[in-house]
Design a protein that fits this description.
six-stranded antiparallel sheet, 251 residues, 5 helices, 32% strand, single chain, globular, disordered N terminus
Length: 251
């Protein structure tokens, strides 16, 4: 079967070596402050538009993915997504390894503040080895696709006993041009208080780093856990793609 020129281009870009770490432009201390204060942080223009288009171009390929999920079949919402197989595209691999290196100290401090024993090693390779030893063998980075009327219910991406408490999502399409609606939503479920929503505006290539399942919050009586869930509101028109980078593997 012949391969379309667009798909060939997408494969070439996505599989090419990454010459620069996308995180190098960002101040880690500023990232840490925003995660501590609100449980998420936006990284404007983490990926170029060419990189975004290359990722989107991979979606219709029969290669490189381990499974496809239609959300409506499982009550997850509407739309679909595909999990990458190993080996991951180099761009996804560097986002995983480099993002983890910057986020692991924050994750360790969060766990220490909540008296959680689990400590994360300094490298992503060492953490993935721990996941694999525990039977969490399946890669979790994924591409999501939404069309008109599609949405993603509030959820958490945990997948096993070894959970890294932060993850990354990159918007691969331009709002107002390629789609309308489809806002990224975070909800904090605060103890003995009503839930607090965050609607986070993103442009094409922007990333949001956010808490997977909970974050520490300083209260009047000390530090407590605030549960976090995320989702996507309904698309009014067009098509929306997202790259999700989860740092732990799945059982």
């Amino acid at each position: 079967m012949s391969v379309s020129p667009n798909l060939e281009t997408a494969r070439a870009v996505a599989s090419s070596k990454v010459s620069q770490d996308p995180f190098d432009r960002f101040d880690t201390s500023d990232l840490e402050d925003r995660l501590d204060n609100q449980g998420y942080a936006v990284l404007p223009g983490l990926l170029t538009h060419d990189d975004c288009d290359a990722m989107v171009g991979l979606y219709d390929s029969s290669d490189g993915f381990r499974s496809r999920v239609v959300m409506a079949r499982h009550g997850f919402g509407r739309g679909e997504y595909q999990y990458f197989a190993y080996p991951l595209p180099p761009l996804v691999e560097i986002l995983r390894a480099s993002g983890y290196r910057r986020l692991a100290p924050i994750a360790n401090r969060w766990h220490a503040s909540l008296n959680i024993d689990a400590h994360f090693p300094s490298t992503h390779a060492a953490f993935i080895a721990r996941c694999h030893e525990a039977g969490q063998l399946r890669p979790t980075p994924l591409l999501l696709r939404y069309g008109q009327g599609d949405y993603n219910c509030l959820h958490q991406d945990r997948y096993g006993d070894h959970v890294f408490p932060l993850q990354l999502a990159v918007l691969l399409a331009e709002p107002g041009n390629e789609f309308d609606g489809g806002e990224f939503v975070l909800v904090e479920q605060r103890p003995r208080m009503q839930s607090r929503p965050h609607v986070i505006p993103l442009r094409k290539g922007d990333a949001v780093v956010f808490a997977v399942n909970f974050r520490p919050v300083q209260g009047a009586r000390g530090i407590y856990r605030t549960v976090m869930r995320h989702g996507v509101s309904a698309l009014r028109s067009g098509r929306r793609h997202t790259l999700g980078v989860i740092f732990h593997d799945a059982t």
